[in-house]
Amino acid sequence: MPPEITRVATTDIAEMMAPGPERRMALPGFADEFVDFPHFIIRITEKIWHEREVDRVLEWYADDCPIHTLAGDITGAQTVVDNTWATLDAFPDRRLDGDNVIWSDEGGGAFYSSHLITSKMTNQGDSEFGPATGRKVRIQTIADCLCANNQVVEEWLVRDNLALVQGLGFDPDEIAVRQAAGDQARGESLIQFHAEARGTAQDKPTPVPGGERAVDVAVSALVHTFGGDTAAQAGVYDFRVRASYPGNAQLYGPDEVSAWLAPLRKALPDLRLRVDHVAEIPYLGEAWDVALRWSAAGIHGGDGRYGPASGAPVYLLGVSHFRVMNGRVREEVTLWDDLAVRRQIAAARRAK
């Protein structure tokens, strides 16, 4: 009987990097060095970032691969190479340690991964945010990748840049204003860039009352939490839930999760949410891990986390990882680039 498919959350990195030669699942079009799809994601990350084989991006990313971020899109393997070296110039000791890979088989030889990463790094060179500070920082990132034929063919990258700039000692709102000014000088705007995407974030997902599947619990948790329905939220969260949100916010219990999101709900009172992709895998025992990639849109129409209401149309690209045990969420990581949200609001203020 072949070994089970790699479970990233519970397997040591040394074992994942040397799993043996036996294929653990059908993986058409992928190189023989990869025993299963999670192994592909972990191994290329290790090779590129930790063994510094950065040019292998040209092998493992499609030439025209689009990488979607809330701060704007980039395209192509060579751009990924250039950006990787630029990041390593600023943070030479940066690590990308894989906490989990939640994945799905998309059919036709395509697979989708949602890769939760913790990065520890020291700012030893100038970065896009400012001069080198010498500070050590730790942030979380989730990279969602559509893969086929041994390559990443599309990626959605969600990094906690709010935690990064705060850890470096910079004021995130000042950084956002500076970025918005740079956009304006180039004749660009994140508000304009996301205009079409904002229009698609209209269909609010429906929670499933009493839904028993882990994915039903996860979707209900997302909808109730962002919608502010604390009574329903308490029904899908374990009272001991541990949750991580942008700015490295570490929360315990559904009450703290709801309280952290309250200023966001006040700032974006008409926020509309749509789930764009779902993946789920078994964890341990009866527990399941669920990844939801989602988008949201609303008007900055209330005072709150982002200062006085600006009227800015705001778009969010987010990913949430839920660990569901006994029909309730026990652990959660929800990320979006909150610095890019502030950049959209700064752009609207500059336009007035």
Report on the architecture of this protein:
It is built from 12 helices and 12 strands. The strands form 2 sheets. The protein has a 6-stranded mixed beta sheet with strand order 2-1-6-5-4-3. The chain has helices at residues 13-17, 37-50, 57-60, 77-90, 161-167, 172-185, 190-193, 195-200, 214-227, 230-236, 254-267, 338-351, and strands at 66-68, 74-75, 97-107, 110-122, 136-148, 151-159, 237-245, 249-252, 272-282, 288-299, 313-325, 328-336. It is globular, with a radius of gyration of 20 Å. By secondary structure, the chain is an alpha+beta fold.
Shape: globular
> Helices and strands, in N-to-C order?
HHHEEHEEEEHHHHHHEEHEEEEH
Oligomer: single chain
| β-strand amount | 25-35%
Helical segment count: 12
Query: Overall mean pLDDT score?
Result: 94
Spatial order of strands in the largest sheet: 2-1-6-5-4-3
The total beta strand count reads 12
List keywords for this structure.
single chain, 352 residues, alpha+beta, 6-stranded mixed β-sheet, globular
Q: How do the strands and helices of this protein lay out in sequence?
A:
Blueprint: H1 13-17, H2 37-50, H3 57-60, E1 66-68, E2 74-75, H4 77-90, E3 97-107, E4 110-122, E5 136-148, E6 151-159, H5 161-167, H6 172-185, H7 190-193, H8 195-200, H9 214-227, H10 230-236, E7 237-245, E8 249-252, H11 254-267, E9 272-282, E10 288-299, E11 313-325, E12 328-336, H12 338-351
Parallel strand pairs: 1-6, 7-12
Antiparallel strand pairs: 1-2, 3-4, 4-5, 5-6, 7-8, 9-10, 10-11, 11-12
Helix pairs in contact: 6-12, 9-10
